[in-house]
Structures are given as structure tokens and as C-alpha cells.
Amino acid sequence: MTGGEVAGILVAVFWAILVSFLAVVLARLAQTLKATTRLVAEVTEQAVPLMADASATVRSAQTQLDRVDAIASDVQEVASNASALSSTVASTFGGPLVKVAAFGYGVRRALSRKGDDMPAEPSRRTVIIGRTVPSARRTNKKRKG
């Protein structure tokens, strides 16, 4: 064998090893692609129903939000009506009720004075550092009487 034949045999062996290595790599790559394809198919099978459920949930939430919005607007209307009614009642009955209360107070006061022999004096009190003490004149009148 000559040197050229030995070199050709070495190149052929090297070439055979390289092709074998690439065949193994391609076979494993094919297995990985098949597994990936299966995984994507399974995810798609599970994701489609989940997306449908999520879409239904969003629609339901939108319906509930519309109902809450309607309720909130009704509550706002009721509150404004109650405020208007309150101001109407206050303006209609407020003045006369104050007059009736003042009249009743005046009658009670007059009747209570009519029963007393002494004229009613406004009570006077002296405040000494946080304590209220009856004034000296009022105390003297009570002692004399």
C-alpha cells in the first residue's frame, strides 16, 4: 500500500465516523422534535377549554359589573331623593316646630314661676379652678328662708 491509499483509507474512516456521529445526532433531534410536538399538542388540548372557561368567566364578570352599576345608580337616586325629602320636611315643619317648642318652654317656665313665692333669678355660680361653687348671695338667701 502506498501513502496515497493509506491517506484515502484514513479519510474514508474519518468520513464514516463523522456520518455516524451526525446520524446519531439527527436521530436524537428527531426524538426531541417528536416529544416537543406531543407536548405542544397536549398543551393546546388543555389550553383551548381553559381559554373558553376564561372567556365565559369574563363575560359573567361583565354582567355582574353591569348589575352592580345599575344598583349603584339606583342607590344614588334614592340618596338624592332622601336628601330632597329631608330638606323639604325641614323647611316645612322646622320653623313651626321650633315655635311650638319655644311656646311650650315659655308656658312651662311661666307655670313653674307661678307656683314659686320668690321671683326666679338666674342661677349664679363661681368657677374656681375647675370647680363650680354656688355664689354667696344665693347661699345666703337659702339660709335665711
SSE layout and pairing:
Blueprint: H1 3-115, E1 125-128, E2 131-134, H2 136-144
Antiparallel strand pairs: 1-2
Describe the structure.
This protein has 145 residues and is mainly alpha-helical. It has one domain (3-116). The chain has helices at 3-115, 136-144; strands spanning 125-128, 131-134. The longest helix is centred in the middle third of the chain and has 113 residues, at 3-115. The protein is rod-shaped, with a radius of gyration of 52 Å. The N and C termini lie far apart (157 Å). Residues 138-145 have low confidence and may be disordered.
Summarize the structure.
84% of the residues lie in helices and 6% in strands.
The sequence of SSEs as H and E is: HEEH
Q: What count of helical segments does DSSP give?
A: 2
Distance between the termini: 157 Å
- Range of strand content: 5-15%
What share of the residues lie within helices?
over 70%
Overall SS class: mainly alpha
Q: Give the CA-based shape.
A: rod-shaped
Mean pLDDT score: 83
List its traits.
6% strand; 84% helix; 2 helices; 145 residues; two-stranded antiparallel sheet; 2 strands; disordered C terminus; mainly alpha
